[in-house]
Specification:
- The protein is of the alpha/beta class.
- It folds into three domains: 3-227, HUPs (Rossmann fold, 3-Layer(aba) Sandwich), CATH 3.40.50.620; 240-331, Tyrosyl-Transfer RNA Synthetase; 351-427, Structural Genomics Hypothetical 15.5 Kd Protein In mrcA-pckA Intergenic Region, Chain A, CATH 3.10.290.10.
- The chain has 21 helices and 15 strands.
- The protein has helices spanning 3-9, 20-26, 45-58, 70-73, 90-115, 127-130, 135-141, 148-152, 155-161, 170-173, 175-190, 202-215, 255-263, 267-277, 282-294, 300-314, 316-330, 335-341, 344-354, 366-372, 379-387, and strands at residues 15-16, 31-36, 63-68, 120-125, 192-198, 223-227, 240-241, 244-245, 356-358, 363-365, 391-393, 396-397, 404-406, 414-419, 422-427.
- β14 (414-419) and β15 (422-427) form a beta hairpin.
- α5 packs across α16, α11 crosses α12 (202-215) and α16 packs antiparallel against α17.
Length: 428
């Protein structure tokens, strides 16, 4: 496929300023950029969408310039925010940049192993643009090329100005000027001709191209391309889970957590997500969807999607472990047999997802066991649950409130506890 055809087929193309850039970037050897403010020490799933868009440019031999917005991150983007947020300190921003850079390198290394393609990228920090820049320099070389009228016309600015409680600080108002000047710096000093970003940023992005052309006497060869804001079939932003961002850092949320998010994809979204979040060829995706549609209850499409995404983000071992935990908790396999073959790392991961207890000594009474594992709040509640036939240990119902379990009862040093359908584990 040609670049434009593939972006459209994958649902990654929304708007553009000029179609010329498709031919330019189809040939490779060009640079493009997308900016990320280091307001956290990890990217999340919305970033992953823009990142996979960048990958489709990179696989044609183009270089992705990952712009880390130290300077803009110190201010915060006011777009679609109802009020100002707290500033970040330089040390925190530095830590966040380092973490994001390591994360991107790892994801690209995983993609390289999956596809046998090389992906070129470089990191640029916009703090370097401004650290020696005086306020007078800024007025003379940036602000003069854009009018207050233009800035006030932006929806995100108008929204904040119309909010009597929060208003808009001068600092936040200046954010768009820094963002616009980033493109100029990258164009003049790094050979970047194209900016990609979410469709919610289009107004700002187009304004910066006009500003840049004014500064270069309308000779700048620059382009903007936006990516649609992806919604699931229910109208919810796909990258949210119960109102919280889903991070690409296994320390913030586990690979299993991300796996479960994609496993729970609605049937209507499987095709869309496979196209956007994988590098599988379109005919491969169509074959997966066709097979999925034959028996959607088996969730074949969701499993292929979740496996590929976890391999991309965290690699194969993480994908295998996430599948194993998912099968253990929700599948039909013999849980005790699975438990007996699990590695210590798998057991720790299972405990992280289910919760449980670390037991001291060589034995434990059932009432204490249930309380320690947070399956009951008290011995009294534990007794009631046993009397209600709600408790199982190692898949056997417990009826004796005086029952004691020892290491000899454990499987792989683990007791498998269950309250109704809720599992937890206790480790000796």
């Amino acid at each position: 496929m040609k670049l434009r055809e593939e972006l459209e087929a994958r649902g990654l193309l929304y708007q553009m300023t000029d179609e010329k850039f498709f031919d330019i970037y189809e040939k490779g050897w060009e640079k493009f950029y997308c900016g990320y403010d280091p307001t956290a020490d990890s990217l999340h799933l919305w970033h992953f969408l823009t990142f996979m868009t960048a990958v489709n440019f990179m696989k044609r031999g183009n270089t992705f310039v990952l712009l880390i917005g130290w300077a803009t991150g110190m201010i915060w983007d006011p777009s679609w925010k109802s009020e100002a947020r707290a500033f970040l300190w330089l040390e925190q921003l530095r830590h966040n940049q380092e973490a994001i850079t390591i994360q991107v390198k790892q994801i690209l290394e995983n993609l390289k192993k999956l596809t046998w393609k090389d992906f070129k990228f470089e990191v640029v920090n916009n703090y370097d643009f401004y650290k020696d820049f005086s306020v007078f320099d800024f007025y003379r070389t940036v602000w003069k090329y854009i009018t207050i009228n233009t800035m006030l016309s932006k929806d995100n600015v108008k929204k904040r100005l119309n909010n009597p409680e929060s208003g808009l600080t001068y600092t936040e108002f200046s954010y768009m000027l820094l963002q616009g000047n980033d493109f100029l710096e990258l164009y003049e000093n790094h050979g970047v001709k194209l900016q990609i970003g979410g469709s919610d940023q289009r107004g700002n992005m187009v304004t910066w191209t006009e500003m840049l052309r004014k500064k270069t006497d309308w000779e700048a060869e620059i382009y903007v391309m936006t990516i649609p804001l992806m919604m699931d079939s229910s109208g919810k932003k796909f990258w949210k889970s119960e109102g919280n961002a889903i991070w690409l850092d296994p320390r913030k949320n586990s690979p299993y957590f991300v796996y479960q998010y994609f496993i729970n994809t609605a049937d209507a979204d499987v095709n869309k997500y496979l196209r956007a979040f994988t590098l599988l060829e379109i005919p491969e995706i169509e074959a997966i969807v066709n097979k999925h549609n034959e028996h959607p209850e088996e969730r074949y499409g969701q499993k292929q999607l979740a496996n590929y995404v976890i391999q991309t983000l965290f690699w194969k071992e993480a994908a295998d472990q996430a599948e194993k935990i998912s099968e253990f908790l929700f599948g039909k396999s013999d849980k005790l047999e699975m438990l007996s073959t699990m590695s210590q790392n798998d057991i720790e991961a299972l405990k992280h997802e289910t919760g449980g207890a670390k037991l001291e000594g060589s034995e434990a009474r059932i009432l204490e066991l249930l309380v320690q594992a947070w399956l009951a709040e008290s011995n009294a509640e534990a007794k009631r649950l046993i009397q209600q036939n709600a408790i199982s240990v190692n898949e056997e119902k417990v009826s004796d409130i005086a029952k004691t379990y020892s290491k000899e009862d454990a499987i792989n040093n683990v007791l498998l506890l269950k309250r109704w359908k809720k599992y937890k584990i206790a480790q000796f």
